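Troubleshooting log. The previous structure file for this entry was overwritten by mistake, so regenerating from the original sequence record. Sequence copied from the archived sheet and checked twice against the printout by T.R.
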Amino acid sequence: MAFDAPGVGPERGGLLEHGFPERLRGAGWEVLHTAVASDADWAAYEETLIANGEAELAQGDDPALREWVEAARARWERPDGKDTLGFALLTLRRAA
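Regenerated output below.
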């Protein structure tokens, strides 16, 4: 199911605040549980991903991996880098 919400972002709220659960219900799903990653959870994920890439590079240079690690670090460290993504897990079942 496509979900088009122009302007969705941290400054305006995320998908959960823009009717996504209601759209799911309208498509025949029941939302049983919603878990949203905290800022600390998201930071742990991003920083561990970068650290793992750096650890692999310490074993031997890989230009493609180095480019990826540098891009990931640059994205994470820019002024809005910690405000652009998040993660939510919704447990669903088909509505009766």
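The chain has one domain: 15-94. Archived copy saved in two places this time.
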